[in-house]
Structures are given as structure tokens and as C-alpha cells.
Specification:
- By secondary structure, this protein is mainly α.
- 76% of the residues lie in helices and 0% in strands.
- The protein contains 15 helices and no strands.
- The chain is globular.
Length: 359
């Protein structure tokens, strides 16, 4: 009990001391940075296209003008722009999921893997690939549809275990998610090892580490709807999220229906995670790292933290995907490799910084 009160006090003090930077100007800066990095991501690649031509192609399509013949229009509109927008949407979604999950379970190490949903989506997608179901995917759903179906099944299973006895306890939720996630990850690894096709194994591993190479306009539809809707729903619950961090009793004393709030947060984060993993594969560290970095700048008040986390996550993942495409001449790096290389040192730095302040 003493440790919990101390942790709550530390969080409250941290919120007060870390409100140095106003969220409004920072949000404007991040929005401008996002536009700039999106333009760079579309312009750069094996064939460089001037930024002015990029915007000209986009304007022609948005205004309904006839597309000009040539490779620039094909590269910009059909290949690079959907991929850059997909990276931005997934980055924003992971930032939101990480922020909400850390409040949901009151654990700074929480991310989508805690739910087990990422593992369920990955298992369904890998099963679809290994069984050679091709573009039809599992039950004709396609690869993304199979991944989302796996996420929903896992969500239902974790839900049933976490709700056993009529209560929705954070510890039970975490344990259920981690246990089921590890179990499903073991099955996924077994399926990969059973594959005798080297190219198939490479495709599975590449998908498991995250990639936006399959981005297209039709595939953008689900995250383009899910991310803004979940953001608005979470933003409407910002005050309740703040109260939840102070403990169940304190939150209940402020009029928050804790059980209902956790149920809503679990549903929103699970469904959004399923959508994101379905279109991009499993990308680690973004949902874990982004909320920590943003809290250092704007504090832990969720009305500020949620939009900043979404914008920073979008900027980060577009930049990472650009690096993955251009850093090597002969091949493309999986997104998860670069996010891990960035995320692990960043989290270690943040940990050392926190320990230094406490000592």
C-alpha cells in the first residue's frame, strides 16, 4: 500500500513538473513535421522525385484532374503515398494504444503484446501463409482479414479469462494476455519451423517483424477509420484515464465507473491493435516508447498526452519506414528491426534518467 501511494505521489509530482512545454504549439510543430516527413517519404527512394512534383501529383488526383502519363504519377499515387500514409496511421494508432494501455493496467511497461492480441493476429496470418492459402487468406478473408480475425478470437479469449468471477482486475488481464500471447507465439514459431519453403519462411519472418510494403489505397480504409474514431473515444475519456492512474478507489471516489472504463479501454485497444497488426504486421517498441517520450515533454495529463502521442508516433514511424527503404541498396529492412534498435536504447536512457532522479 505504501509503495502504491509513493508511486501515485511520484506520478502526480511528475505531471506538475513536466508541464513546461505547452501542448498546443508542440502539436502544431509535430503536425508540420509530419507533413514534411510525409513529403520526404514520398519523394525519396530508388527514384527521387522533386517535392514540388509530389504535391502536383497529389493535387491533380484530389482535384479530379486527369492523371498525366509517366512513372512519377504511378510511383507517387499508387506506391509511395499509400505506404507513407499507412505508416503514419499505424504510428498514430500505436501511440494511442500504448498510452491507453499503460493507464488501463497502471503499468509503464504495457504495450499491445500485453494483450496477446498481436500474437493472435500474427498466428492467423502466419497460418494463412504457411498453409499456402495465398491472397484468399484464411476462410477467404485475405492476409489482413485473417490477421484481424485472429486478433478478435484472442481478444474474446483474454476477455473471458480476465472477466472470470465478474471482475475485471488489471493483474488478471495482464497475466491472461501475456500467457495467451506466449502460447500463441510458440505455435507461430513451430509453424515457421515446419515450413520447407525458404521463400515462404522469409515472407513469414518479414511480416512478423513489420512492413508497409503491401500498403494500398483499399488497405488504408480500416486504419483510416479506426484510428480517428478510437482517438476521439479515448480523448472523451481523458479525465477518467487521469483518475484511473491514481488507483481504483480514488477513481471511484471521483465518480468513475472503473469496471466499465476498463472494459471500454480493453475493447478499444484490442480492436485497434487488431486493425494495426492486420495491415502492418507486429511492430515492437513504438507503443511502449512513444508515451514515455511524450510524458517527458507534456506530462501525464491525457488531454495533452493522447494527441501528442498520436502525432509523435506518426512522425516516428514514417521516418523509420523511410530509413528502412533507403538505407540499403539491395533490400528493404523490416520496420520492427529499426524500431527495436531505436526503442531499446531510448527506454534504457529513460530508465537511467528516472533512477538518477530518485537517487
Amino acid at each position: 500500500m505504501l509503495d502504491q501511494r509513493s508511486a501515485t505521489k511520484d506520478r502526480a509530482e511528475g505531471w506538475r513538473s513536466l508541464r513546461r512545454m505547452p501542448a498546443g504549439p508542440l502539436a502544431v510543430f509535430l503536425a508540420m513535421a509530419l507533413i514534411a516527413i510525409l513529403t520526404s517519404a514520398v519523394a525519396q527512394g530508388s527514384t527521387s522525385i522533386p517535392a514540388g512534383e509530389v504535391w502536383a501529383v497529389v493535387w491533380r488526383h484530389l482535384s479530379g484532374e486527369a492523371a498525366r502519363p509517366g512513372t512519377d504519377d504511378l510511383i507517387v499515387w499508387q506506391l509511395r503515398l499509400p505506404r507513407a500514409l499507412m505508416a503514419a496511421l499505424v504510428g498514430a494508432g500505436l501511440g494511442l494504444v500504448g498510452t491507453a494501455m499503460q493507464a488501463l493496467v497502471r503499468n509503464p511497461l504495457a504495450d499491445p503484446y500485453f494483450l496477446g492480441v498481436s500474437s493472435g493476429a500474427s498466428l492467423a496470418a502466419v497460418t494463412s501463409i504457411v498453409l499456402g492459402l495465398g491472397t484468399g487468406g484464411f476462410l477467404g478473408l485475405g492476409l489482413s482479414g485473417a490477421a484481424f480475425a485472429g486478433a478478435l478470437v484472442t481478444f474474446a479469449l483474454v476477455w473471458a479469462i480476465a472477466r472470470r468471477g465478474g471482475r475485471f482486475a488489471p493483474l488478471r488481464l495482464v497475466l491472461a494476455g501475456v500467457a495467451i500471447g506466449q502460447f500463441l507465439s510458440g505455435i507461430t514459431s513451430y509453424l515457421v519451423l515446419q515450413s520447407e519453403d525458404e521463400q515462404q519462411t522469409h515472407s513469414v519472418l518479414f511480416w512478423l517483424m513489420g512492413s508497409f510494403s503491401g500498403a494500398s489505397w483499399p488497405l488504408l480504409a480500416a486504419p483510416a477509420v479506426a484510428v480517428p474514431v478510437v482517438f476521439l473515444l479515448l480523448q472523451a475519456r481523458a479525465r477518467a484515464l487521469n483518475a484511473l492512474l491514481m488507483g481504483d478507489e480514488s477513481a471511484a471516489g471521483l465518480g468513475v465507473d472503473v469496471v466499465r472504463l476498463r472494459r471500454e479501454l480493453f475493447t478499444l485497444t484490442s480492436l485497434l491493435t487488431g486493425v494495426l497488426v492486420a495491415v502492418s504486421g507486429a511492430i515492437g517498441f513504438v507503443a511502449l516508447m512513444v508515451p514515455h517520450v511524450c510524458r517527458l515533454v507534456v506530462g501525464g495529463e491525457h488531454r495533452r498526452l493522447l494527441p501528442i502521442s498520436a502525432l509523435f508516433g506518426a512522425v516516428l514511424l514514417v521516418a523509420v519506414d523511410l530509413v528502412c527503404r533507403v538505407v540499403l541498396d539491395t533490400q528493404e529492412l523490416p520496420v520492427g528491426v529499426v524500431t527495436s534498435l531505436i526503442g531499446a536504447p531510448t527506454l534504457l536512457y529513460l530508465l537511467n534518467r528516472r533512477l538518477a532522479k530518485e537517487s
